[in-house]
UniProtKB/TrEMBL annotation:
Native organism: Magnusiomyces paraingens
Keyword presence, Iron: yes
Superkingdom of the organism of origin: Eukaryota
Cofactor: Fe cation
Record-given protein name: Pirin
Family to which the UniProt record says this protein belongs: Belongs to the pirin family.
Gene Ontology molecular function, alphabetical: metal ion binding
Gene3D superfamilies documented for this protein: Jelly Rolls
Residues in Pirin C-terminal domain copies: 204-307
Segments forming domain Pirin N-terminal: 45-148
Bound cofactor: record note: Binds 1 Fe cation per subunit.
Keyword terms: Iron, Metal-binding
Length: 326
């Protein structure tokens, strides 16, 4: 997504600096709690952004952006390019169609994921499609989209997709108050499907009833955060409401997320961790590179239809025309 401002440069000097030095059997301390600010994106769409915004955290290596999107049927993300990153799209409600200039297309439904590697270049569209027979009377599609940086040696790799359907995701229930979808990584001894993305990432979707707690181990030195989708949780005795992101230091090997006994409703959180990349981040809209020269080259390649963008010349998606026809 993030289809606007192709010529906007994102500075790298405000990259999150976190405390290192892991300790066994110790919960990680909190680096920062950031609200996910609502803003416009695409065409008529609204997203809550807590990574990648000027008022939040610009990047948290290897993570470049986190959007919690809610998009009505008359909005969406028509044809737009990417280079140099991977995107992980996780559907919560409704359906999203996708289509790109390679001829690939498909639909993601509730609980489905798509791991898209942009590599040297892709142009695609992502458009909501509410299926009344399945989705009922919901007013918008909802999900998370996470942008993950690619190592410099893979910036010019061939684009690819890896889809993960809801029925393929392992589920673990440590007790009667907690349910965890193990999208990527490991939780309570249950492993996910492997090799979904080039950059190692853990992604867990946790539903916690009142009185429940998730005690989740984290890989040593992985950067990690917790995003609260709904409800209110407590992390290290700090109350965190919905649509806030808790960024963690690397001074421990686990995170504890609990819901108070007297909470009125359950909570739902995403626990996400990734292996840091020791490389510069220079971003120009949907292009992510390691130097200003390389990101300028990406923009020039897109405009000229070269070096990975040959098929962009004259290409238009079918699904992107839904907005044009209104």
């Amino acid at each position: 997504m993030n289809t606007k401002r192709l010529n906007q440069a994102v500075k790298t000097d405000d990259t999150a600096q976190i405390e290192f030095g892991s300790t066994k059997d110790t919960p990680r301390s909190i680096f920062k709690v950031v609200p996910a600010r609502e803003q416009s994106e695409g065409v008529g769409a609204r997203v809550r952004r807590s990574i990648g915004g000027s008022s939040t955290i610009s990047n948290f290596t290897p993570f470049l952006m986190l959007d919690h999107f809610k998009v009505s049927p008359d909005a969406g993300f028509p044809d737009h390019p990417h280079r140099g990153q991977e995107t992980i799209t996780y559907m919560i409600k409704g359906h999203v169609d996708h289509e790109d200039f390679t001829g690939s297309s498909g639909t993601l439904g509730p609980g489905d994921l798509q791991f898209m590697t942009a590599g040297k270049g892709i142009v695609h569209a992502e458009m909501p499609r509410i299926d009344k027979a399945v989705d009922g009377n919901i007013k918008h599609v909802e999900g998370l989209q996470l942008w993950v940086d690619l190592p410099q040696k893979l910036k010019m790799c061939k684009p690819r997709y890896r889809d993960l359907r809801a029925v393929e995701i392992p589920i673990v229930k440590p007790d009667d108050k907690v349910t965890i979808k193990v999208i990527s990584g490991e939780s309570y001894g249950v492993d996910s499907i492997k090799n979904l993305a080039y950059t190692p990432v853990w992604f867990l979707d946790c539903t916690i009833a009142p009185g429940g707690m998730v005690d989740q181990t984290l890989p040593e030195k992985f950067n990690a955060f917790v995003y609260v989708l709904e409800g209110e949780v407590t992390v290290l005795n700090r109350k965190v409401k919905a649509h806030h992101t808790v960024f963690l230091n690397t001074d421990g090997d686990r995170v504890n997320v609990c819901v108070k006994d007297n909470a009125g409703t359950q909570a739902r959180v995403a626990i996400i961790a990734g292996e840091p990349l020791t490389q510069p981040i220079v971003q120009r809209g949907p292009f992510v590179e390691t130097s200003a020269k390389r990101v300028t080259k990406a923009f020039d390649d897109y405009v000229s239809g070269t070096n990975g963008f040959e098929r962009a010349v004259g290409w238009e998606s079918r699904i992107g025309k839904r907005i044009k026809s209104r």
